Amino acid sequence: QVQLVESGGGLVQAGGSLRLSCASSGRTKYGMGWFRQAPGKEREFVAWSGGSTYYADSVKGRYTISRDNAKNTVYLQMNSLKPEDTAIYYCAANFYYSGSVYYVHDYDYWGQGTQVTVSS
Length: 120
Description:
The protein is an all-beta fold and 120 residues long. Helix content is 0%, strand content 49%. The mean pLDDT is 95.
């Protein structure tokens, strides 16, 4: 099986920064993505890395996804955080290109999530 474990969430003031980590099992992946889900809302795409990188418009310029392949770890650096960034953040892995990287169904495995809360 594939295991993904997120960490690094917490409470931060608006304008602050957090760095999320996602440690994964050793199986080579096509790519890794980050999603988030706010209360009462659907899970939404945030970023993906698999050679190329892609970002949701809502986070472009503020978030950076990066990888440490030796550690099988993917990071999400979040800067200039806003209250609307508050959500549970999930990492996800895909093992082939399904046609897009923007949808929940494009991914095969998911972590348990880590809470990010941004106060005003």
